[in-house]
Amino acid sequence: MSDVVIQGSKLNGDVTLPPSKSVAHRALICSYLSGGGTVNPVIDSNDMKATTGIINSLKNNELELNAIESGSTLRFMIPVVAALGREVTFVGEGSLLSRTVGEYLELLPKHNVSIESNGYLPVMLSGRLKAGSYEVAGNVSSQYITGLLLALPLLDEDSAVILTTDLQSKPYVNMTIKVMADFGVDVKETDFGYLVKGNQQYKQLDYTVEGDWSHAAFFLVAGAIGGDVCLKGLDMNSTQGDKAIVDVMRSFGADITVTSDGVRCKTSSLHGARIDASNIPDLVPVIAVLAAFADGKTVISGAERLRYKESDRIESVVYNLKQIGADVTETPDGMIIKGGKPLHSARLKGYNDHRIVMAFSIAGLFLDGETVIDDAMSINKSYPSFFDDYNSIGGKASVI
């Protein structure tokens, strides 16, 4: 257990963002399936350790694969391993033990794979995946679709992913298709979902991972509320869905500019906005912090899947906002925030959730006194150097 103590301050300066976790997951898997090449840079976060660890376990013919606490790793690798015909057991730790793999329980046995599980870890796999039509809901998690798309090119015949509902978080699937294309594998979008030809070969190459837009959001919000921050290493042509933070912040009135030097955001006159978060769920914690400091009402909707992340992020965000004095009402798929109220420091819960800790570390910059957040080192899941970067441009965060 660890706490972080935040003193009021302003962030001013440049930050070079770490490589995208989402892109790196996909590139590492594609590189493994190609049989060679490198993927760089990759940060030493727990989620990256999960993917690299499973890949190394597969190379060593180990029978137990540990996804640690990475839902992406688990849901991506299950169909990939099934396509390779490996008999293994997936295990995990912490919050991952309460995250389901339910979609695969019904889907994979229809395609020659035996899967033993109660819907959660451990998951025991045997049999080799066969080509065919895969009907899957698009509103549960895009991670299932990504896992299938990564696996299906390895099969002998063509396959179809048929979406039985509208697809939420589509930018994440677009990112998957882009990374696969970089490795020479083709996926075609259709009226029903996706068509994937069999007998494709991932090509070997050295892959460079772009900067992480989801991490950029924390610093951009700090700049907008009361600072001046320029972020380096971001690709404006990125397929990362969280690149939408630029447009989201502009809808709040943020002074944000994109130049050849980076993406800059400085102190702005902020007002409430209506945000459909169905394609950007990971941004909700920090958007909610922004809304608490903006005048007027903000409505965040379309985020019901946040209830099944590392924490129930709707409940987590609402609890912490109330602790600092915000006027916030929880809804089934989001929240309503009436910003502009005087806010104050408090002792907050990190919920062992990296995005909750980072979002409220930004809020703490602008509160009187000391803000204390527990489970501080949950940031190791995705951004171990977050507090180093935070402090390097004026933040005052001390991890105890």
Q: What can you tell me about this protein's structure?
A:
This protein is α/β, with parallel strands linked by helices and 400 residues long. The protein is 32% helix and 22% strand. It contains twelve helices and 22 strands. The chain has helices at 21-34, 46-59, 71-84, 102-107, 142-151, 170-182, 213-226, 245-251, 284-292, 313-323, 354-363, 386-392, and strands at residues 3-7, 12-16, 39-40, 64-66, 88-91, 114-116, 123-126, 133-136, 159-163, 187-189, 193-196, 207-208, 228-232, 255-259, 262-266, 274-276, 296-301, 327-331, 334-339, 347-348, 370-374, 396-399. A four-stranded mixed sheet has the order 20-21-1-22. It has a four-stranded mixed sheet with strand order 2-13-15-14. Helix 1 packs parallel to helix 3, helix 7 runs parallel beside helix 9 and helix 9 runs parallel beside helix 11 (354-363). The protein is globular, with a radius of gyration of 21 Å. The N and C termini lie close together (9 Å).
Question: Whole-number radius of gyration?
Answer: 21 Å
| Spatial sequence of strands, sheet with the most strands | 20-21-1-22
Low-confidence stretches: none
Distance between the termini: 9 Å
Query: Helix content range of the residues, please?
Result: 25-40%
Total helices: the number is 12
Shape: globular
How many β-strands, per DSSP?
22
Sheet with the most strands?
4 strands, mixed
Mean pLDDT equals 96
Question: What fraction strand?
Answer: 15-25%
Structure classification: alpha/beta
